[in-house]
What we know:
Layout: H1 2-25, H2 30-39, H3 45-53
Helix pairs in contact: 1-3
Amino acid sequence: MIEYLGLWALIALSFNMWALISVAGASVALWKKAIWALVLLIPGLGFIIWYLLGPRAQIA
C-alpha cells in the first residue's frame, strides 16, 4: 500500500510542477501569477483549482 502512496504523491507533484511552469509562462500580470503560485501550494486541491479556473490558451 505504501508503494502506491508514493506513486500517487509523485504523480501529484508532477501535476503541480507542470501547472507552476504553465503559470510562470502565462502572459498575464505578475500579481496574477503570484496568486496562482500561492493557490498551487494548497496540497491536492491547488492543481484541481488551477485546472478548472486557470488561464486557457488562446486559439486564434
